[in-house]
Amino acid sequence: MLLFAAGKILQTLMVLLIVSAVSFTLLKLAPGDPIQIMLGTEYSPEAYTSLMKQLGLDRSMIEQYLRWLGSFVTGDWGVSYVSKAPIFQFAVVEALPVTLTLAASALALSVLIGVPLGVLAATRRGSIWDAATSVFTLTGTSFPSFYLGILLIWLFGVKFGLFPTMGFVAPWEDFWAGVSHLTLPAITLSIYFLAMIVRMTRANLIEVLEQPYIAAARARGEPNWRVVWVHGLRNILMPLVTILGLQLGALLQGAVLTETVFSLPGVGQMITNAVLNREYGIVQAGVMITACLFITTNLIVDLAYPYLDPRLRPR
Amino acid sequence: MVDHKSILEERVLGQINRRQVLGGLGAGAAVLSTGLGSRPAHANGGHIRLAWIDHVDTLDPHFTGFLGAVKIHNNIYNGLLKVEYDGKRVSFVPDLAQTWEINDDKVHTFKLHPGVKFHDGTPCDAEAVKWSVERVWKGTPKSPHAWKYKELNNVEVLDPLTVRLTFNKPYAFLPVALTGSTGRAGTIVSKAAVEKYGDKFGRNPVGTGPFKFVSWRENDSIVVEKNPDYFEKGLPKLDRATFVIMKEASAAIAAMLSGQIDGMSEIPVQFVSQIQAQKNLQVYGEIEGNYVYVGMNCKRAPFDDMDLRRAVAFALNREIVIKQAFFGHAIQAYTPISPPMSDFYDPDVAKSGRGQFFDMAKAKEFRAKSKVKGTIEPVFLATEQGIYGTRLMQSVLPMLAAIDIKPKIEVVERAAWIQKRNAGDWDLFDFNWWADLDPDETITPEFRSGEPWNYPGWSNKRFDQLVTDAQDTLDVAKRKVLYTEACDILMDEAPIAIISHMPVFKVFSQKVKGFKYIPVDSLNLHTVSLG
Hints:
Largest sheet of chain B: 7 strands, mixed
Number of strands of chain A: 0
Distance between the termini of chain A: 13 Å
Number of strands of chain B: 21
CATH class of the largest domain in chain A: Mainly Alpha
Helix content of chain B: 25-40%
Shape of chain B: globular
CATH architecture of the largest domain in chain A: Orthogonal Bundle
Oligomer: heterodimer
Number of helices of chain B: 16
Structural class of chain A: mainly alpha
Helix content of chain A: over 70%
Structural class of chain B: alpha+beta
Largest sheet of chain A: none
Radius of gyration of chain B: 23 Å
Strand content of chain A: under 5%
Radius of gyration of chain A: 24 Å
Order of helices and strands of chain A: HHHHHHHHHHHHH
Strand order of the largest sheet of chain B: 8-9-10-1-11-19-12
């Protein structure tokens, strides 16, 4: 077990190293540089050279990367070129909680609505419920989330004035304001997942319900709800959790668009703006954070298997 | 004695006709908002929330390069001078200074308002002004605005409230340079705060203005609150202002329509008509000191050929471009001199035959004279430009095709565009210069040989001489003659095909009262209140 954990950690570190090197190189190779952007219309060759020196961008690319890496691992994430604000504070303390809250509420919404809907569709195959669910899921998967966001804003924000359409309020500071600010973004971000979960649940459950142990359970006279929700659902958890873990990348991607449409100051917006302004340090921090999130989630998924399926537990 | 001050002043101000007030402006001002879920009114001065569509780099006025930031600076700082506008005239009046005396054309003496304090409690006296001026003039790191004090010889403190700036020669651009707004060089900042915060001063600004800085959350908002000790009695009226940083204009418009925000720092042209039609919104905007152009790279073939450039200049049908690219929200430009430069702008320029305009016969004539006869395929470098995106580039393409120029389009994101533009890695590109109040700032650094903003790389000795002479000519009539000739040379040799002068819009909900519009893309909240 210890060996397994050590191996996993080593693997994770390797992945992070590669990811950081690749993102650093890509951004450096892309045309455009931060100093010319910072100088705006006040650009002049002298101003350029002096600022370049000041920010240490006149060093070679490898030296810049190694310097970044060296300070990054020691916890010094540097400061933003423009704002001089410490990147760690900005990325981890300010932006990350916003994205995590948004992603978690979207995920919760999709699971809490998606699983029951999938069960409904699977147990009443061919009924009007099933048809309605498949129309809904097809629409959900094929609808671009940013466009849905704009539609929701116009309908529920502008027309009915029910929900705020912009900004973030932390639910742990002001619960109801937080919830109302999160409602539209969470719906926007969750639609794709919701649809996916419904379809996954339905397809898997249909398969599971035809297994002999289900027939056995029914033969034992167990009530229908128990057959479906305990025996059935338990056996679709594995594929569901796996897919959710793998799709976290898509969720974070969706968060970028959702954050832009709803003006939420999260990691997605942070990375987008940093890429546009070539703020290398912030992009790196953002990439590291998302990579860590992704890896950690999948690690948790791996570790959860034995709990979800007794057959995988060590004997 | 000659009244130099009034000469100086008149040079940049003078009459502006309000001919440019656009249709529908302020329409429906009397119609009240019908409940679109607006927030409850606040008991006191109120808290205004404004969507900031444009970029804010720093709140240190001596180091910014962006108007989105300058618009906020104006509310936190004061300049030695400020810009005023009464609907007809742009004028430069003392701001932190009580009086402004000019002796011998070169010596400017400012008597400051007594008892003015920075937000940190330190006094804003002659020493503070001297220190701020010197910070821009010769401080390290070097301010990008240092060139505005190039001819400054010395700053002296005469007494605690009197400061004197002595220049090497008469300096016609000075009134603009000394304003706290577009000039930036005359903005006075707190020495104690700069020393305390160092390079983080841009995130912890301390000025003397009507609003004190409260917080700046990245990609989210900048908050300022009322400065109760502001030296202009009775101002400001608001208690608090939040500048909500929003990248997506359509999201900002939705937030405004649902009453979550009270105004926007600017409006992309495609939304203007839609917003003007909303009865519960008020729109401010006139043609400002700017121009939009298509630049041609004079440093390499094929546009090192003057005849080819002239062909392009005559081939562009400005009327159609304005309709297609700007939805009609612009006026045709004939020279770079824009309407707010009232002493130099000729309202009848259209009839004068001067400058550039659409004339296909002439375009074809010059095209026939150009060195390359066959089809030319130059690189057209484009990006999302401020309020009109890539539409200018799109709308001129068929016009260029008419004279057998078929550009290869290179649309890149802004960072790459800036790098390519600065490196001269293009044949054609579109660009604009914004918020200028004086011909000196609108054509000199842009077209004098070797200047950093001279992206087309054009060079003409006579032009250089004229604009350089104009810098120390205070007599308005004489200066106008110099600029007229300079512009004629510029338009004739055509390093750029000039397109238009643009209105710049600000929009507020109906409950916002007391906004004073100034045609330099500013958004001063001094007199604003929430009704």
